[in-house]
Specification:
- The chain is α+β, with helices and mostly antiparallel strands.
- The chain has one domain.
- It has 7 helices and 4 strands.
- It has a 4-stranded mixed sheet with strand order 1-2-3-4, with helices on both faces.
- The longest helix is centred in the last third of the chain and has 22 residues.
Length: about 150
Amino acid sequence: MQRFEQAFNDWIQQNISEEKNHRRREILLKGLGHGTIEFLRLIWFPTVGHFNDLYPEWEVRDFNNGYRYLDLAYMPGSAKGGIEIQEYGPHARDLDVRRFKDLCWRHSLLALDGWTFLPIAYLSIKTSRNDVNNLSLLLLENSFRKKRLLL
């Protein structure tokens, strides 16, 4: 895991140092969520081996002129893949009707804007690692296909 720690720290520092958007920079300085780090440590890095074209806490504008942040955005070329780690508390147990509706709209609008969206339950990272690994590989393949079509 030492290789992961070094690559992760370098990647985060690079994102912070290159970020010109003060909102995203502040979020990055606070650190990534536990679920996102576990996904990167247990799934992404062992599978992909690097963080190229992957951006943490990526800011997107919504149709109400607001700002939303994706846990991870995978953007090789002009392909757009969003990864959200859904932890049980804030995404299920503590979810009120208004927040549930907002999450549904968010996913729908991102899909209509050309994003391939991959919501992953945190529990799946711990108990269904092979399935999450396969989903991640499919996201990479899908993004690669989109990238090649746009060339």
